[in-house]
Fold:
Amino acid sequence: MHTLPSSPQPRHWTAPIPGQLRLDVDSAFDANSKCYGLGAVIRNSAGSFIITGVWPGQQASSIGMAELMAVKAGLQMAKDFGHNSLVVFCDAVNEVAKIQRNGIPANEDGIVIHDIKQLALTLDIVSFNSFSRICNGVAHCLARNALHRLSSEFWFDDCKPSWLVSALLADVYAS
Structure:
């Protein structure tokens, strides 16, 4: 794994360089129930959709923890489906900074950050970046959808729901 430096926070969705894939992740969190939904989308340098995933869950301690779990789930999805050259984007600036730091925090976040760093070591190129929420429409829609699901689900380019197509087009054409 080669970790690339983070670039300045973009204000619109941008494609990765040719040969790399872009992984956008997000979470949705219900503070009352502590339930969460995770969403991730992988796209190529043309902006074309490769795969998305949603994961519902229970008992996240905070929205920050849910965001870290979204990064981990997205990396695991990429690895499981053989996508190893990634640029990772998340709209949780503080959580991205925690991942970028050397060392592992000695708290609950540290457990997930350790897992993220271990997963990143199994991939070719990974950089972790934060970006504006307005650039994260697809992952946000996926996370909100996951909040109301009973199980994880994945969609591939040739089989995706219409609500997802609208979000994908909005992200790419807003840029």
In short: Residues 1-7 have pLDDT under 50 and may be disordered. The radius of gyration is 15 Å. The chain has five helices and seven strands. The helical segments are 63-80, 93-100, 108-121, 137-146, 162-174.
